[in-house]
Each structure stands twice: as C-alpha cells, then as structure tokens.
Structure prediction request, 222 residues.
Amino acid sequence: KNEVEQSPQNLTAQEGEFITINCSYSVGISALHWLQQHPGGGIVSLFMLSSGKKKHGRLIATINIQEKHSSLHITASHPRDSAVYICAGTNTGNQFYFGTGTSLTVIP
Amino acid sequence: DGGITQSPKYLFRKEGQNVTLSCEQNLNHDAMYWYRQDPGQGLRLIYYSQIVNDFQKGDIAEGYSVSREKKESFPLTVTSAQKNPTAFYLCASSIEDRVNQPQHFGDGTRLSIL
Prediction:
C-alpha cells in the first residue's frame, strides 16, 4: 500500500464545474505538496502547506493534520486545467512520498 | 528567467550503452534531485545532492550514477547495469534540503531502449 493515496485516479469534468481531488496519507509528514504535471511532462509546484488552507487564483488547497487528509479544489474549471495533479508529503526524516496522481480532463 | 533545464527531451539507448541526462539550474539552489516516473506509479527518488561534491542514494539508485562538480549541474548517467531504463526522468531543485521547501522541476527527459 502506498504511503500516499489519491482519489480519484481519473476525473473528467465539464468546463465551469467545481473539482475536488483528495489525498490521504498514512505516514507522519511535516509538509504536504500539490504538484501539477502538464501533458508534456513538466511539473509545477502549486502549493506547500502544513496546516489550514491556501488559495491561489482558482485553486484552493486544504489539509487536516488530525485526519491525515488534504484536498485540492479547482473552482470554475477550464480546459487549461487539464493535467495530472500529484500529492506528495515530506517529513523531517528527509523522506518524500509521492501519490500516483489524478488525471484531470476538463471538457469545453 | 530562472529555472531548470533538462536535455535532451527524448533519448534513445542501445542495449549495453551508458547514457547521460543533463540537468542545469540557474536558481542558485543548493539541493538537486533526480526522479524516475513510470506509468501508474508515483515519482521515485534516484539520487539527491544537498551540496557540491556530495550526493546520496535515493530509493532506486542501482544502475545509476551522478556527479555534482558544480552547483548548477547534476547530470545523471543511466548505466548498462540498469536493466529497465525506459522511463520518464525528472530533475528538481530546491533552495536547501527538500523538507518544507518547494521543489522546482525541469520538463523531463523521456528515455527509451532501441
């Protein structure tokens, strides 16, 4: 079993829909990262958070430390949001745990 | 603009051949990392370096080698000992050690066996 589990694995949405991607982890972490991988393969770091909530544009990331759960929300989704979203956790032992990613397709 | 440059974008290797993947960063980051990505799997750490002339093995270092002679450069060599090298390879860097620091990624190199 992977230390970081994401759901769903694949997600198709209509443009404008509100999207939620979930991430659960079974190990102790000090920070949770959300990454976006474009179809060409390049990865962009979206958020790094250790508590609460962060917002950037139409993207919102939340984390519940007690429940070991994080969510990434996309409001007013757009076809350009189509990508693979990866959740990853780091801990003070210098370990970095990656989820397998959620593939999002937003249809016009 | 500052960033990480990986080259080449696509690379083909013959059986028994060593190949080297380039990773250069102009972000003045101390730490650099190499990951391997296979379909349906999360990224796996191959090697990382926290400072020039020093590097550590990650989870899947067998069949790979690295060097860190300059702060800006962290090339990865896929040796003939790596029996299943076909994968997507990503290089990343961070200001210092990765814990609690965002990582900046390159665009990746896709390696295939001829």
